[in-house]
Structure formats: structure tokens, C-alpha cells
Amino acid sequence: MLEKIREGSQGVIAKSILVLVILSFAFTGVSSYLGSSTEAAAATVNGEEISESALEQAYQNERARLEQQLGEMFAALSADERYLSSVKQSVLERLVAEKLLDQTATDLGLRVSDAQIKSAIMTEPAFQTDGQFDNDRYQAILRQLGYQANSFRDMMRTDMTRRQLVASLVGSEFVLPGEANYLADIQGQTRDIRYHWVDAAPFIAEAVVTDEQSKSYYDANLAQFMSPETLSLEYIELNAKDMAAGVTVSDEEAKTYYDENKQQYLKAEKRLAAHILVSLGDDDSAAKAKADAIYAKLQAGEGFAELAKAESEDTFSGEQGGQLDWFEPGVMEPAFDEVLYSLSKGDYSAVVKTSFGYHIIKLLDVQPAAEAAFEGVKSKILAQLKEKQAVDQYFGLQQTLADVTYEVPDTLSEAATELGIEVKSTPVFSRNNAPAPFDNPEVLKAAFSTNVLLDRMNSDVIEIEANHAMVVRIKSHTAAGTVDFAKVKSAIVERLQQEQANEVARAKAQELMTSFSSDSAGSDYITKTKLGRFDQEIDGAIVGKAFQMAQPATSAVVDTVALASGYAVVVLDKVNAAEAIDDNMLSSLKQRLSSQYSEGDYRSLIATLKANGEVLYSSAQ
């Protein structure tokens, strides 16, 4: 076999294939050196691509935002692939809109100055403490988000330029006083009505529904009688939090732990730092030369604070003479940290390089380390030791749980006996109404899996959250399907009887409406004057009908409306103009109308840019 392969590799065809393979590798290598990318585009906007990686990053950010906003509800929603698909599509549409706005802003020559960016950062509430800009908070948030000062400023510039365009086109919308007044007049109207309720309840006893009618309704509306797949589970669970409640730790044990781990209860030394920063740019050597020149001025006797204000490219600390904040060890980058903790109070360093640029660091003040008293940390130590013992116990039992439920896969009793816990049961539930914690996606996935549902075996150990696990097995299961006619017949009969009774009530209401006259309308009609749109004393259907009816001219206007049980005859006697309109109400209406107009303008702007441009989506979207 090997000889045939060697012989074949010497042939003309094999050599040709080898040449093509070599060329393909060569071109691949050249293209990678030239910097071209083979990443597919999620969309192309007027020739500019939105990469799949950019879409994925924006999508993951949106998922994180939704998870934080919706909490446990998001876990249930995210189990639906259609929901996640719609979220991803909306994120892509947002990226397309942003790309269109950026292109338009560039075409119009819109710009944002450094002073505007600085002002926006200084006034951003996220960077403030007690209403004042906090440089330490600003730097910490940037580090947390993975930004450097320069890249963050670039992002701010793009965003503010985009908002400048939107504000110039959309923010110019205004609301005329007459519009707000007209809407206030409409909303503030009241109406004088009379109404008579024709109750369907007395007619239900007279309604006759045959078996054929109920069966015909059932056959014609099978979709209404579909039952979801349901099940109930047996389960055993381990939870370290529950175990901790049964753990006892003495004060002596806590004191021993404190004595053996005093280093944990030291308040670390803090140092108040200042610096002069020269940011990294395209020319690293120029930045280094500038930093060296500043250092030479310091050596020549010029003041640190004055040089920081004049030369530092960290604008915010520069205005404070270079002062940053109090830092514990390990907060700043290692190179900065090492130099800061090597200085004596009042000294400054030579030029130091970090990822932010070149620094000259000065130590302004020192807060020595201090030891926390035992009584001050006693409760924390007790809780910590209880939790540790519970977690240790949990992991030992979890392994036993995994072993026994695997070795004896057709029951939970063996594992429950081994662990000294009881087997519990859930109520019957479907995928969409599972009680906590069985609404956890991993539990639902296991419960409806082939191994558990069809083979009726124990699940694997499912981790609900940290140090909380369970094993489940099927107790009962009902497949999805149509509910038998016999089970729903009585409900169908009641519904058809109600419909027949409602029909009788409708006919009687129609008769009353046809024969109505103001003279004959007596005590059977209930009078309501100055009825408001949001009046809750009267059935909402009657209120809605009253405000749909035309304004009376010479005589009252009469109509009927369906209620939950029966019909009502509604008589509109008079439309009352709005009374004194509150200035706050007018202001609120103006803001609402302005927001609606602006939203409409923004959507129209994006639609116009799409129509006049070329937006192509990948086939995967």
C-alpha cells in the first residue's frame, strides 16, 4: 500500500495538485501578512462592513444588560431561541443605524472638540462622587471596562459626533402651544351619560345546548383544547447554605482562626499618589523624550504641581497638581505600584512606563497599615468558618450523591438513605410554568431529556448555583396533546349557554335602543355626569363606548356595547369641555408630543438613509 502511494505521488497529476496546494498556502500567508481578513460580515453598509465579531460583542453586551435588568425572568426567556434571535436582529439593526449616522456625520464634516469631550466626561454622573468629578472613580471604571484614556476619548468622540447629527435633525422638533392645548382639551373632556345594563345571567337557565352543538364546537376549535407536556419530579438536593445553619462554631475557634490569620485583618497601607503623564502616541520615542524633558525641569527645581498643570496629559489630575488618589498595593499597574511603594513621602520618581504612557510619580502622603480588633471582625469570622465547614461537608456529600445516583440509576432512595436526607416531589408543571428552582434552564433541560423522561433514569448532578446541587427523576409524565372531549364538555356547554344568553341580552338591548326616547327613559337608566376617560366606578366597556360616540347635536345619542355578561344601552346626553388645564399637565403633554415627534423623525431619518444607501445583510442574518 505504501509503495503504491509513493508511486502515485510521483505522477503528473499528483505533482500538479501539490503545486496548487503550495500556492494556496503561499497566497494565504501573503494575505495574512497584508492584513486582510477572512471574517464574514454580518452586514455591509455602503461598502463598510459590520463584522460578525462586532455583532457578537454587541449582542453579548445586550444580553448582559437584559440579564441584569430582568433577573431570573431572563433565564426563562433565553431558553426560547426565537427570543434570542429577535434580540440579536435588533442589535444588528442598531449597529446598521449607527454606521449610517457615522457615515452621514463624516459627509457633513461634523466634529467634536477635545474641550467638549472633557466637559462631557467631567459632567457624567457615573464618574462623580457627591456631585463632583472623581478622577479615581473615572480611572477605576475605565480599567474595569478595559479602556485606556485615549481609546475611551475616541469612543466618546464618535458617540458625541453621532449625537450631534441626531440632535441637529431630530432635536429641532417642536410642539406648537395649540397642539398641546388641543390634546389637553380632548383628554380633559367629560361626558354626561345614562346607561342600562341588560344582564345575561337570567337567560342562561333558558339556554339549551345539545351534545351535537358542544361536539361541533369542540371539533371546530381543537386548538383551544391543546394541553402542554407536563411532568412532576422526584428529587434530592444539597445546599451548603442550609447546611451552614446546622454548623456550630465556638468563640474560641473564631479567636484561634483570628490569631493564626491576623494578616487577613490588617488594613493595608495606603499611599496618596500624584503623577505627570505623557500618553503613548504613534511616536513612542517622542513621548519618552517629552517625559525626560519634564523630569529635567523637576531636577532643575521647578515645582511638581505647576509642571503637572502645564505639562501632564492626564487633564483631570493635572488640574489638581497631578494628585490622583489613595491607593492600596495591587490597585495600579505593577510598574506604577512598585515605584509608588519604593518612594519616601515627598519624593518623586524617574520616568516610569505603563500601558497608559510615561509617568513621573510623586508620593504625597502615607496612611500606615492598621490591625482590626477581634471583636470588630468576630461575627464575620464565625460566618466564614460556618460557611467553610458547610462547603467542605457539601463537597463530600456531593461526591457521594453523584456516585450512588449513578450506581443505582433507577431510584433516589438509596442515595437519600446514604446522605441522610429525604426524597422530595414537585407539583405537576410544564416547561413554561415550572416553579423555582425547577425553572432553572439546566434543570428543565435534564427533566425533559431522553435519559430522564423516556429511560426514566436519574439525572446527572445538576448545579443550580454555587454549592447548591440536585438530582432529579421522573415521577409522572403526560405527553402534549388534545384534551379529551369528555373532560372539557361541561366547560364548552357553559360557554355556549353564556353565548346564547348574551345573544338574548343583545337583542333586548337593541330593542331598548330602537325604542329609546328621553321622555320614556326612567329609573331603569343610571345617570352619570362628568364621566372622565379614566373613571373606574363604571365598567370600562361603557366608558370606552361613551368616548367613542359622536357629540350630540339636538338630541341624545344612543348605542349598545357588549359586556362580560350581557349588554348595555349607553345614552350620551352631553359633552363637557375640559375645565381649567394645569400648567404641569400642559408641560407634560408637550414633552410627550415632542418625544413622539422626535422618535418618528429618527425612524424616518434611518429609513431615508437606508433607502438612499446600500445595506446588505449576510445570509446568516
Automatic annotation (TrEMBL):
One of its GO terms (cellular component) is plasma membrane. Its main location: membrane. It is a single-pass type II membrane protein. InterPro entries: PPIase_dom_sf, PPIase_PpiC, PpiD_chaperone, Trigger_fact/SurA_dom_sf. The keyword Cell division does not apply. GO terms for molecular function: peptidyl-prolyl cis-trans isomerase activity. The keyword Cell inner membrane applies. It is found in: Cell inner membrane. Residues 268-365 form the PpiC domain. Keywords: Cell inner membrane, Cell membrane, Chaperone, Isomerase, Membrane, Rotamase, Transmembrane, Transmembrane helix. Belongs to the PpiD chaperone family. This is Periplasmic chaperone PpiD. The lineage of its organism: Bacteria, Pseudomonadati, Pseudomonadota, Gammaproteobacteria, Alteromonadales.
